[in-house]
Amino acid sequence: MMLMVLCLIPIVIATFVFWIWMLVSAVQNKGLSEGEKIAWVLVVALLHLLGAIIYFFVGHPKRNRPLMGT
């Protein structure tokens, strides 16, 4: 039982760090408009790990694209 708990701790910590990373990335993403940023922050915050995974594959790649007209 104790071994199982010790094996789960790094997974839980890694999951939490990934979630925080995606949340911060959504806030700082210069490739998104303000409305998109708000929407992604809500998705990541409310859906937790699932939202972070969705953002990683859908919204996160936009960080390298500049905003139109700037």
Overall SS class: mainly alpha
Tally of helical segments: 2
Low-confidence region ranges:
none
Instruction: Output the radius of gyration.
Output: 15 Å
Helix and strand layout, with pairings?
Layout: H1 2-28, H2 34-58
Keywords, separated by commas or semicolons:
single chain, mainly alpha, 2 helices, 74% helix
Please characterize this protein's 3D structure.
It contains two helices and no strands. By secondary structure, the chain is mostly helical. The relative contact order is 0.16. It has a domain at 28-59. The model has no long low-confidence stretch (mean pLDDT 89). It starts with a helix and ends in a 12-residue tail after the last helix. Helices cover 74% and strands 0% of the residues.
Summary, kept brief:
74% of the residues lie in helices and 0% in strands.
